[in-house]
Structure formats: structure tokens, C-alpha cells
Amino acid sequence: MSSKRGSVAIVGVAESDLGQVAPGLSPLDLMAQGITRALDDCGLALSAVDGLFGAATQSRMLTLALREYLGIDPTYGDSTYLGGSSFMTHVAHAQAAIEAGLCEVAVITYGSTQRSDGRSATRGKDVNPYETPFKPFLPASAYALAASRHMHEYGTTREHLAEVAVAARQWAQLNPAAWEKNDLTIEQVLGARMVSYPLTVRDCCLVTDGGGAVVMTSAARARSLRKPPVYVLGCGESASHVSISNMPDLTTTAARRSGELAYAMAGLGPKDVNVRELYDAFTLTTLLFLEDLGFCAKGEAGPLVADGRLRPGGALPTNTNGGGLSYCHPGMYGLLLLIEATRQVRGECGARQVAGCDVALAHGNGGVLSSQSTVILGSAATV
Predict the structure, then answer these.
(1) pLDDT per residue over 169-180, tens digit each?
(2) Dihedral of the CA atoms 63, 65, 68, 74 (nearest 10)?
(3) What is the chain's alpha carbon radius of gyration, rounded to the nearest angstrom?
(4) pTM
(5) Beta strand 76-78 with 51-54: parallel, antiparallel or unpaired?
(6) Which CATH superfamily is domain 8-114+208-232 in?
(7) Model confidence pLDDT, tens digit, residues 28-45
(8) Does 279 participate in catalysis according to the annotation?
(9) Where does the chain cross the membrane (predicted)?
(10) Residue 198: cis peptide before it, omega within 30 degrees of 0
(11) d(Cα 317, Cα 214) in Å, to the nearest integer?
(12) Fold of 136-201+234-382
């Protein structure tokens, strides 16, 4: 069975505490915060949840741990782990489960205390016999390799990369929940501490605690709840490798395929998208996903962003919450992209709201450009 455009909707979203959370809080505590807040957002009780979806770096059997923690007995669970793209994939899986009658109210959640807990917060490192002997600083070295190749092939500059960070910071300054709000210039990005050439620390995402939750249900039930439904118009996922040394083309990601699938299901194209929420673990990823998701041709993203088009007031509003670069990045960031995309379609974003936002694209990235998943969301006007 293939999922149907608009058959389900996101009806509740919420963040957990973000940044550096109170001492003693666990990832499950943050997930519970997100779930209870998201359920309150849509007016549903915890007892209504019969589908539980999530991924985490600090829990090996997440849905089992959550059902015990929350004291619920869902009929369906899915803890598919694909890195930061997991949560967009969960949207597609939750849609299929709801359509198949396996559950009626699905919750997708994430939580991490990686900033508070430091190195102990992450899973053990995989040993790759082709890369580990060279002692790369992962994941930064992997993204730096792809950035260097993009610069070599297309003339992309460090200034183009820096513009992505500056645009994200300007959006963050409009978001009360953002971690970094100080002014940031291209010169400051270029002059910051080098992490892995050509990426400085300002080309790299934040290290924060945080999480949240998304509540989904059928389109029919969604219309009776507290907030306007945000319909799932299209989903697509694709993967290309695990280790960066096995990436077929360092400048083209599997987002090309995931985007094609999502656009086809939605019956829409890049020109129809009002807001782009793109996984920005590094400044490079925003450029790659602008290209691979069809907002410009391959190799043209650098010049495209150079005139400030991604910034507030620009022609291509992107990462409107401040992104992983300035708002929040708790290890895996994809769920927070879905939250922002939903709020933009609802018109709830205050000073950072993009006018007339009926279609929002949220794109997740996992591993070292390894797994890609795209979700297109729309208002009632689109169904």
C-alpha cells in the first residue's frame, strides 16, 4: 500500500527544555516533556497515544523504555535509527501505520542530554578499517572532505559557506528559544577556530541538550482537534553509504532521490515551497540540499545564497528557527525541523513568521551525508 497525499496530519508539536538542561534530567525526561507538551498543544490525553515512534543515541531500546516510563501500552512501535533523518522517516512510517489501522494517534519523539553529559552521551564509535587508521575527526572531517570537493568542482568559496551561518544567526535572533543570538559576520565565521579545513567552528552545529515531540493522526480526526491540521503531503527517503569514503559522489547526496519521491507524492515542485527547513549540521549541508532538492542547479548554491536570500526578508527563507547552527542541535536534529515547519504552516512563529506559508519542506540528514529523508507539509489550502 502506498501512502496517500494528505491522509494524515501533524496536530501537535512541542520542544522539550533546550540548551543546557537542569542537572539530573535524562533523555527520557526530555522526551516525556516533549510528548506531554505536544499532546497539550492538540488537546489529546496521553491515554490516546497508541503509536510510539522515536530514535535516540542514549537508549538502545527506546520505545520499550518510553512505554514503561510513560505507563502506556501502545499497539504499535517503531524505533528505526537512521541518524538525524530518522524522524522524517518516522513520519512516513506513522502515516503508513495510521492508514493500515495499526494505530490512530502516533507520537514521534527525541531527547538528548549530550551537552550536559559530554562524551558519555554518544554511542560507541564504529571502527572502519578504511578510515579509522587515518584518525579522522568525525563527523567534521567527513563534511569537510565534501566541502573541499564542492569548492574544487564548482568554485564554491568559504564566504559562501559563511553566509549560511550568518543567515541562520539572523533567524535565531528572532527566535526566543535559540541558543546563540550574538551578531555574527562573515569575517567572524572565517576567522573562527579551524575545526577541519575548510570548516571553522562557526561552520559547525551547536552542541546542546534538547528534544521534543510531534503528534500525528488521521486527517478525519485531525479536523476536530485544538489546532489547525498540518497535512503530510509527501514523503521520501533514500540512502547511499555509511562511511564517507564510500560516498559515490561527494557533491551529490541521496536527497536528490528523497526529494523526487516527496515531490511526486505531494504533486508539487520546489517552486511551490514557501519555507525550507534543511538539516544544517554544517554550513555545507544547506548548500548541498538546496541543490539536491531542486532549488538551484548542482554547483549553484554558493552564488545563490551570496546575496542574502536565505536571511530574514530574503527570497528563499530557510532554517527559520536559526537551525542547528544557531538555535539548537542535540545530536540528532531532524525532529526540530518538523516542529518548525509545522509552526510556520500554522502561522505561529511571531517575528520570524514567513507570510503566506502554505507549504513547508523539512529535510533530514543522517550519518555523514548517509541517509536522507524529506517531508512536505501543507495547510488546509493545499488539500
Answers:
(1) 999 999 999 999
(2) 0
(3) 19
(4) 0.97
(5) parallel
(6) Thiolase/Chalcone synthase (3.40.47.10)
(7) 999 999 999 999 999 999
(8) yes
(9) none
(10) yes
(11) 23
(12) Peroxisomal Thiolase; Chain A, domain 1 (3.40.47)
